[in-house]
Structures are given as structure tokens and as C-alpha cells.
Design goal:
globular, 5-stranded parallel beta sheet, L-aspartate oxidase activity, 620 residues, 4-stranded mixed beta sheet, FAD/NAD(P)-binding domain, FAD/NAD-bd_sf, 3 domains, NadB
């Protein structure tokens, strides 16, 4: 009897080492760019999360994939992206110290990016990261979710939480849950985009297995062993550095090609599209083992390109930086996926919503939770049968991503981030870039935290509540290049833009598109009337607003049209509290002062909107 009891006791102990249980508020699957930011933002709102990350690093494409050159948002350092950049500046010694390559204004060593992100997470008391951990069997429960976390040594922990965030690189969680999604190039009938194909297909963008090289000094020979199946003709023409967004002819400069991804401390990011190491591998629907096998082909492509750089181009002193990543082969831990599954979401963010945001039926611009300024950039060099769409010449202004793109159309309790949000295939070419994905992650964390605190499903949370939380943490909800987070009226100008009362001006510009609010520009009575008509239908037949610039007297008079009797003196006091002093009631008002008055007097940002940006209270 004692032997049986002892055997049962030992068995119980062994089982408790294999199975454990944890409870938290949010489960975040993936510690990449979005997942890390989601955890930090949720923590700063007082909500706990557990992050399940398969590698030993944080940052995903920023670090673990080696894409350590930030594309876009240089003049829109929104929220946690801006904070991360400031820490890079501090580490390297200022902004100039990270302007080491011509593809970006911010380049860094992947290992340093990981170090900074780990420090940022380590400063938060509400985050637990489980590294080298896979996930399995996510299940909906009465109170939220249960998921299995499987550690490197085989230990299985069951985790329970109220909200689940899919922050995987390829949208694997939503696929596991059979949440509907899109994959590949879309049809016109789906997206209503003029540039879309008549019929869709499953073609995705090329991926890249990046590698980091290091300059070992003139005279050094770091040439690798000639890779199998090496053919120099595969990379002939790789030195063309002409801008694909222009119509300029080829410009061959091999050294400039390499300095495209020049990193601090004499390192180089090898992530080159033109006859470089891009490769077409559609592995999204494959199993993990099938993916690993297929990705060996991507690594071989990159090794052949490295050998070409060393042997054919003569840069023998550039060798693989074997100390950059915690891997034996010197490669990053994951490839750079440019495209993923795309969620069938509450909001399908398509090209027309960027090109003409004020002219579409959906006013998605009012629901923004992240911003971007990069152009539509697709990589299809390595798939010969891809339909010819000159994506990079589709000119767009900067934009904001609607909150409804993070929420499944018909599935509760799940938030989707990274590159798997509800956007069209074309728009993914812009939203896939690092600062946008960081912003999407921050918004995911804010949405999840608000849902937990209010005991609601993510789909039930007020868009305005999430936007307000983001603004409190210096994140942009409108892509205004001339209203930085340091602006004393940052919140007011962002909120007024999100109501549509005063609109920004979008400008397609090179590789860093723009939207200007023009805070110091005068506002005409007619411009204000146009904005007010969005909320007060009775004003549609009011023709008392002229093209003359507003002053305090005419502003007071116009507010009476919407039943707000505010004296000139009261308006002056509102401005005085914002250190915007007007002693002359005839002085012209600019967009800054009008925005402040509208925010304080009307508070239209406080009116609830739906996922299409329309007022929920139709009687307002």
C-alpha cells in the first residue's frame, strides 16, 4: 500500500512539473514589433499580460528578422515608436549617429534593438514574457480564453485570460481559430480599388532572409565557402540604385547598394530587393516543419548573394557578423515576412480610404489608432507570374489605420495585430512597415486594456475611449506632420481632426508622404460651417457663413447656430487658459485657436461613433 501511495505521489510531482496554470488579463501570442508594444501599453494602463515568444528576443522584424532600418514615420514619432527611437538616440549618441544608411533616418544593430526593448519591458511590472515558448490549443471559455504554453523543456502551462491578441508574424492564431481572413492579391469586387485586379489570386510579396555583415577592415578576407548552386548571373544588375518610384534610368553603384542598409559600428543590413536576396516563398499555410524546411532555400539565396558581394564585387572584407544573433549560422532567428494572412475585419481599410479619406462612404479617418507615411511598396521581383501593378507609383498621402481593422467581423474576444490586420493587399504595402506595426501594437494593447478594465468585449469598446488612451500616451491618431506630440495643443488638434470639423491636407511626397494641419492658418466662416454640417444637419440650408476669416465675434455668433451661447469674453478666457491670449476681439483666429474653442465648447469628440466613423446617435 505504501509503495502504491509513493508511486502516486511521485507521479503527481512529475505531472505538476509538466502542467501548470497561470491567470492574467491578456494573452499576447508573439513578442514581435506589435506584441511587445501591446504589452507595454497595456501595462501602462494598469493591465497585466503574458507574452508568448518563440525566440529569445523581443522585436520581431525589427530585431529577430534583422530589419533594423526603420521605414517611415521619421517626422511622426508616435507614442512608443518615438520612445524607442529616443532610446536608440541615447545609446548611440544622437540622431546623426543612427543616420548610417540611405534607406532610413534610423538604423541600428538588431542586438541593440532587442536590448532596448527588453529594458523597456523590464521596467513594467505588469508584463511576463515567456521566451522559447510555443503555443497550442487556444480555446474560448465563459470568462475569456485558455491557451497552452509549451516551453523548450517540454513543460506545459495552461494560461487563462480575458482577451487574446494575435501578434504572430503570419496570423497563425486567427487561422487556428478558423477566423475568416484573406490571402494574396484582392479582386476589385472585394476592395473596390481601381488598381486592384479583376480576379484575385493567392500571390503574396517576396520575403527576405536578411543577414548582417560586418566590415573587418581592408586586407581581411571573410569570403564564405562557395554556396551550392551558385550562379553569378542570378545577381547581375544588383547594383542598380535608381529610385523605383521615379522614371529614372539605371544607376549602377555597388558601394551605394551596400550602404543602403549601413548600420552603426561598420555593419550592413543585407535586405536588397533588386536582383538581391528577396525570394518568393508562400509558406503561410504550411506547417511549422514545412516552413522551416522551405526557409532553408531563403537562407541559401542570401548566402549566394553574400558570396556574390564578396567574390564578384570584391568586398571580401565584409563578412557575416556571427556575434549579432544568438544563432550558430549567423542568420537572424526569423525571416522578414512582408505579407501575412489579412483579417476579415469590422473595417476593410482599402486604397480609396487613403487616397480620398473624406470622400468615401466610410469615414475611417475618424476612427484612427495608428499612423503611417510610407508609400505603397510591394516586392514582387522574384515571382515571374505576378500581375504587373506598379505599386510604388500609386501616390498617396499619409494616413491613419482604423480601429475596426484590428477586430474580427464576427468573432469575439480576439484582437489581431502585426501585418494581419484588416487591410487590402495593396494597402498592406504601406501598413506593413515597422513604425506602423509598432503603432498597431500599441493600439492593440490600449484596446485590450480598455476592454479588460470595462469588462467588455473588444468589439464593444468605445473607439473614442481607445483614442483618448492613446493620446494620453502621446500616440498619434491623426497623421499630422506639423503637430508633434510636444505641441501644447497636441490633443485638441488631434481630436478635432478625428471629428472632421477641421480637415488636414494630404500630400503625396517622395517616400515620406504628408498630411498637414496648418495650425497657424486662418479659418474662414465657411470652412467652419462645412465642418459643423457633419454634426448639425439643420445647417445644410444655412448660408450665413462667408469666406471671411473668423474672429472671436463671428465665432461667438456661429456657435449660436448650434445653440451654444458663448460670449466673446468667455471664448477669450478659454484661449487664455491655453496661453493663447487675444486682447482684440477682431483679431483673426487660426486653426489652432478654433480647434481649442470647438473642443472645449462642443466636445464633439465625446460623441460615440461606429466602425465606419458615423455617429451612433443619429438624433444628435
Amino acid at each position: 500500500m505504501k509503495k502504491i501511495y509513493l508511486l502516486c505521489f511521485v507521479l503527481f510531482l512529475s505531472l505538476t512539473q509538466v502542467f501548470g496554470q497561470l491567470k492574467t488579463d491578456i494573452i499576447i501570442v508573439g513578442g514581435g514589433a506589435s506584441g511587445t508594444m501591446a504589452a507595454i501599453q497595456a501595462s501602462r494602463l494598469g493591465v497585466k499580460s503574458i507574452v508568448l515568444e518563440e525566440t529569445v528576443w523581443l522585436g520581431g522584424m525589427l530585431t529577430s528578422a534583422g530589419v533594423s532600418a526603420i521605414d517611415g514615420n521619421h517626422k511622426m514619432p508616435s507614442g512608443l515608436w518615438g520612445e524607442f527611437r529616443e532610446k536608440l538616440y541615447s545609446h548611440y549618441g544622437g540622431a546623426a549617429a543612427v543616420e548610417t544608411g540611405w534607406v532610413s533616418n534610423t538604423l541600428f544593430e538588431p542586438s541593440i534593438g532587442n536590448k532596448i526593448l527588453q529594458e523597456m519591458v523590464g521596467q513594467e511590472s505588469n508584463i511576463q514574457v515567456m521566451f522559447e515558448t510555443t503555443w497550442a490549443n487556444p480555446v474560448k471559455t465563459a470568462n475569456g480564453w485558455k491557451i497552452e504554453a509549451r516551453g523548450k523543456k517540454g513543460k506545459i502551462i495552461h494560461i487563462e485570460a480575458k482577451v487574446l491578441i494575435d501578434a504572430t508574424e503570419l496570423g497563425d492564431v486567427m487561422a487556428n481559430l478558423k477566423v475568416p481572413y484573406y490571402l494574396g492579391m484582392d479582386s476589385k469586387s472585394l476592395t473596390k480599388e481601381s488598381f486592384a485586379l479583376n480576379e484575385g489570386n493567392d500571390i503574396i510579396q517576396d520575403l527576405t532572409y536578411v543577414i548582417t555583415l560586418k566590415d573587418f577592415g581592408q586586407g581581411a578576407d571573410k569570403t564564405i565557402k562557395k554556396p551550392k548552386n551558385y550562379d553569378p548571373s542570378e545577381f547581375a544588375g544588383c547594383c542598380d540604385v535608381s529610385d523605383p518610384a521615379t522614371h529614372l534610368k539605371n544607376n549602377n553603384d555597388c558601394y551605394k547598394m551596400l550602404t543602403y542598409g549601413g548600420l552603426p559600428n561598420n555593419k550592413f543590413m543585407i535586405n536588397w530587393p533588386k536582383k538581391g536576396n528577396d525570394i518568393y516563398l508562400n509558406i503561410i499555410e504550411k506547417s511549422n516543419s514545412e516552413r522551416t524546411k522551405a526557409l532553408e532555400e531563403a537562407k541559401q539565396m542570401t548566402l549566394r548573394f553574400v558570396y556574390y558581394i564578396q567574390h564578384e564585387l570584391g568586398f571580401k572584407h565584409l563578412g557575416i557578423a556571427y556575434d549579432e544573433y544568438p544563432t550558430k549560422d549567423g542568420f537572424p532567428m526569423i525571416p522578414y515576412h512582408r505579407e501575412s494572412r489579412r483579417l476579415k475585419a469590422k473595417s476593410l481599410f482599402a486604397l480609396q480610404h487613403i487616397m480620398t479619406p473624406f470622400e468615401t462612404d466610410e469615414a475611417y479617418y475618424k476612427t484612427g489608432i495608428a499612423v503611417g507615411d510610407y508609400t505603397i511598396d510591394h516586392h514582387h521581383y522574384k515571382y515571374g507570374n505576378a500581375p504587373e501593378i506598379d505599386f510604388v507609383k500609386i501616390r498617396v498621402p499619409s494616413y491613419n489605420v482604423p480601429m475596426g481593422s484590428l477586430i474580427p467581423a464576427e468573432f469575439e474576444g480576439l484582437i489581431v495585430s502585426e501585418k494581419s490586420i484588416g487591410v487590402s493587399n495593396i494597402v498592406n504595402g504601406a501598413t506593413r512597415l515597422q513604425p506602423v506595426v509598432l503603432g498597431i501594437g500599441q493600439a492593440s494593447g490600449a484596446l485590450a486594456a480598455v476592454a479588460v478594465k470595462q469588462n467588455k468585449q473588444p468589439s464593444e469598446v468605445s473607439i473614442r475611449d481607445v483614442q483618448a488612451a492613446l493620446l494620453d500616451h502621446k500616440a498619434y491618431i491623426m497623421p499630422y506632420i506639423d503637430v508633434p506630440a510636444t505641441d501644447p495643443q497636441f490633443k485638441e488638434l488631434q481630436k478635432i481632426g478625428a471629428t472632421g470639423l477641421l480637415r488636414g491636407t494630404g500630400i503625396p511626397y517622395k517616400w515620406a508622404n504628408q498630411t498637414w494641419f496648418y495650425p497657424e492658418r486662418e479659418v474662414s466662416q465657411y470652412e467652419l460651417m462645412q465642418g459643423l454640417r457633419l454634426y448639425y444637419p439643420a445647417l445644410q440650408t444655412n448660408w450665413d457663413a462667408s469666406g471671411e476669416a473668423l474672429d472671436l465675434e463671428s465665432m461667438s455668433a456661429m456657435l449660436k447656430y448650434v445653440k451654444k451661447d458663448v460670449s466673446v469674453e468667455a471664448l477669450a478666457q478659454i484661449l487664455a487658459k491655453e496661453n493663447l491670449v487675444f486682447t482684440d476681439h477682431k483679431s483673426k483666429l487660426n486653426r489652432r485657436t478654433v480647434a481649442v474653442i470647438l473642443d472645449k465648447v462642443l466636445n464633439l469628440f465625446g460623441q460615440e461613433i461606429d466602425y465606419a466613423g458615423h455617429l451612433k446617435n443619429k438624433q444628435f
